[in-house]
Amino acid sequence: MSFAVNLSSLPLRSPEITTGGYNFPKSVISSTRKRPMLSFATSNSTEEPPTTTPEIELEFIGPKAGEDGKYPVDRVSAASGEKVLRTIMADNKLELYGTYGKVMNCGGGGSCGTCIVEVVEGNELLNERTNTELKYLKKKPESWRLACQTIVGNKENSGKVVIQRLPQWKK
Ligand code: FES
């Protein structure tokens, strides 16, 4: 990139010329009164492009149909690979636990097995089931996960994940 600054509006002074006391004829020491023009060149090559973390769009389907017979859906987005599902749900005040889990959950420590969700869509955007999940969800459908073990995204991927809340209430 380059740009120019026009200095024509600035007052112009003759350059100082020292003559060592000798009086040169005026034609010898007169300066050309050309208007100066300064040019600058800049480069953006050292600037880093702005970094943006990819986002995961999440849809949470409620466990109970409303009066119109439709299941409520809450939509939120989260930075890829930064949080587990349980934290995202808590941040957005989405109920995760059933009656027992509300009072008896382990707070995300992976030792109660009550933070169950079902991944309806977007399983490929989540981490693999952990050993904790293999233990607690041994006889449950493959699509069930523990929200405190489920990392949403991997910092590089983006897309949509659809989660059924409290799937045990629907089975
Ligand atoms: S909150 Fe206890 S296992 Fe997830």
Automatic annotation (TrEMBL):
<dbReference type="InterPro" id="IPR001041">
    <property type="entry name" value="2Fe-2S_ferredoxin-type"/>
</dbReference>
<dbReference type="Pfam" id="PF00111">
    <property type="entry name" value="Fer2"/>
</dbReference>
<dbReference type="GO" id="GO:0009055">
    <property type="term" value="F:electron transfer activity"/>
</dbReference>
<dbReference type="GO" id="GO:0140647">
    <property type="term" value="P:P450-containing electron transport chain"/>
</dbReference>
<keyword id="KW-0411">Iron-sulfur</keyword>
<dbReference type="InterPro" id="IPR001055">
    <property type="entry name" value="Adrenodoxin-like"/>
</dbReference>
<feature type="domain" description="2Fe-2S ferredoxin-type">
    <location>
        <begin position="104"/>
        <end position="152"/>
    </location>
</feature>
<dbReference type="InterPro" id="IPR036010">
    <property type="entry name" value="2Fe-2S_ferredoxin-like_sf"/>
</dbReference>
<comment type="similarity">
    <text>Belongs to the adrenodoxin/putidaredoxin family.</text>
</comment>
<protein>
    <recommendedName>
        <fullName>2Fe-2S ferredoxin-type domain-containing protein</fullName>
    </recommendedName>
</protein>
<keyword id="KW-0479">Metal-binding</keyword>
<dbReference type="GO" id="GO:0051537">
    <property type="term" value="F:2 iron, 2 sulfur cluster binding"/>
</dbReference>
<keyword id="KW-0001">2Fe-2S</keyword>
<keyword id="KW-0408">Iron</keyword>
<dbReference type="GO" id="GO:0005739">
    <property type="term" value="C:mitochondrion"/>
</dbReference>
<dbReference type="GO" id="GO:0046872">
    <property type="term" value="F:metal ion binding"/>
</dbReference>
<dbReference type="InterPro" id="IPR012675">
    <property type="entry name" value="Beta-grasp_dom_sf"/>
</dbReference>
